[in-house]
Amino acid sequence: MAGGIEGVSDTDGIGVTSRPVGPQFPNGLLVVQDGLNLDPSEHQDFKYVSWRAIELALGLPGG
Fold first, then answer.
1. What is the pLDDT along the chain (63 residues), one digit of tens a residue?
2. Residue 4: C-alpha distances to residues 22, 34, 39, 59 (Å)
3. How many CA atoms lie within 13 A of 28 on its CB side?
4. Which residues pair with 45 in a beta bridge?
5. What does pTM read for this prediction?
6. Which residues pair with 46 in a beta bridge?
7. Helix or strand or coil: residue 13?
8. Interatomic CA distance for residues 63 and 51, integer angstroms
């Protein structure tokens, strides 16, 4: 678990925007539905990833 967040498995979908989504996500947001949550063991949840983090990881303009 990198940064205390586990990976995603068995997803039914994702959503992404590069538009501001409040003060926590000024560059946008990626939302991934996780159908099998392992820690803690739950049915499902959603993972939120800052679009800025994705820009930086991929070396995209704006990152």
1. 455 667 777 778 899 998 999 999 999 999 998 877 666 666 777 889 999 999 999 998 876
2. 22, 15, 10, 23
3. 14
4. 34
5. 0.72
6. 33
7. coil
8. 9
Q: Which ranges constitute the DSSP H helices of 1-63?
A: 51-58
The beta-carbon contacts of 58-62 under 8 Å, at least 24 apart in sequence, are 62/27
**Domain positions in the chain:** 14-58
Measured distance CA(48)–CA(61) in Å, rounded = 21
CA angle 37, 26, 19 (to 5 degrees): 90
Cα separation values, 3 from 6, 13, 22, 31, 56, Å: 8, 22, 22, 17, 16
- Closest by CA position to 32, among listed 14, 10, 8, 6: 14
